[in-house]
Amino acid sequence: MGPSTSAAAAIAGGVTGGVTPAAAAYAAAAGRRKSEVPTEYDGATSTPGPPRNILERIPTYLQPSLPWRRRLLHFTFAWYTLTMSTSGIALLLALTPHRFPGLDYIGLVIFLLDLLFFAFITVAIALRFALYKDALVHAFTHPGEALFVPTFWLSIAAILSNVSEYSRMFLPAEGGNTLADFMEITFWIYLAVTFASSVFQYHMLFTVKEERRLQVSTMTPAWILPIFPVMLAGTLAGAASKLQSPEHSVSILCAGLAAQGLGFWVSVFFYSTYLSRLMAFGLPVQRPGMFIAVGPPSFTCAALVGMANRVPEVFKALTDSQQIRYLSEHGDQETLAAGIRLLALNVGIFFWGVSFWFFVSAMAAVVASGMPDRRFHLSWWSFVFPNVGFVISTIRIGSALSSEGLLWMSTVMTALLFLAWAFIAIRCAMAVRKREIMWPGHDEDST
Predict the structure, then answer these.
(1) Cα 378 from Cα 267, distance rounded (Å)
(2) Mainly localized where (predicted)?
């Protein structure tokens, strides 16, 4: 009987004195005392779980089953990548240029499904924190999971963008004022909370204990995630400003531009470390995470072009307003508005090229080099959400240039992303059943 089979049988035998028999056997073979055996975090310091290195050697189907209450301990913030991606697909179906009858309703159904997913995940994580007293602190201080906390805010940003799009499709015009007030209030709250959250979370990562600090040798684009929600305030500003009066649109657009610039430039600072890591240490094991690098330049492109599209209407309505009097002293409003749109388009194309390079680079890493770890991980959702930004930016540029080639490219990519989303959703459900995730040693809280 091999060591893996022996360990599986020992674990199945039960737990004695807080250390599994398998852990004790491995420790004895190495000449170590039981008390020296490292244990897997399980949210309750009085009941250590099996050592992580033991669990990783044993196929999950050979391990004894765990109650759902125990598996809930490993329900991490990374599950919000599911809602980010589902919202992203719903948003693409609302924006895709080539449409057919019923597409609006398909998108609406997916959006409503995303709201159910979001509610379920939020309740599950709240239960995890309620059942395991150390889980909350662990989630914010363990870098493996802490990097995914911002996916909660990213899901909210995607949901709000869908609210803006689908409400204009399906709600009567009389409800426009109520919706405008809702989007304005939520935009400012979202901007303030995500800005504070980014400062807090990076501070936590900067000051975490040395043994828990992230290593440059394992750097991935996921390091960008804490600043990502602030950056999406620019995308959200473009959606919210469509519903606002010109007076209110000015402040929202200016704040969105500042937030977009903040998020993009912080991301750029990380890119140099990321590319250095690739040159020095090679490709990451989790290849799908490489697509996260596609997000910042593509969402910046989409935000700049989207916000600039609102400028001519705002300038026209506020010709004599104090808010744009400075501009009125330096030229005709129509010319200035056209100039801003042209500048945004040119800068957007510049960023689109960067995002396209990261997209092709990540695709080459997956297709040409393969995926060393073929087990399902929630990072697989990175195949979808960052690329949603790339498709939206392609739609914006294609519409501005009246380019049928770019518009058809965006339509084809929308269809491919929908298929990828459906496949990953099925694979995610299978992974839960097969114990590939929500299992000791297999989730972000144990990496």
Answers:
(1) 22
(2) membrane
Question: For 109-146, what is each residue's pLDDT tens digit?
Answer: 999 999 999 999 999 999 999 998 888 888 888 888 88
Phi and psi at residue 375, in whole multiples of 5°? -65, 150
Q: Match 């004895």 to its residue by tokens.
A: 28
Residue 134's contacts (CB-CB under 8 Å, 6 or more residues apart) are: 41, 43, 44, 45
pLDDT digits (tens, 9 = 90+) for 169-192: 888 776 667 888 899 999 999 999
CB under 8 Å, gap of 24 or more: what pairs does 115-122 form? 115/159, 117/82, 117/83, 117/86, 118/80, 118/83, 118/155, 118/159, 121/75, 121/79, 121/80, 121/82, 121/83
pLDDT digits (tens, 9 = 90+) for 85-99: 999 999 999 999 999
- Tell me the two tokens of residue 325: 């009097």
pTM of the model: 0.83
**The 3-state secondary structure of 95-148, one letter per residue:** HCCCCCCCHHHHHHHHHHHHHHHHHHHHHHHHHHHHHCCCHHHHHHHCHHHHCC
Domain boundaries in the chain?
Answer: 3-64, 69-446
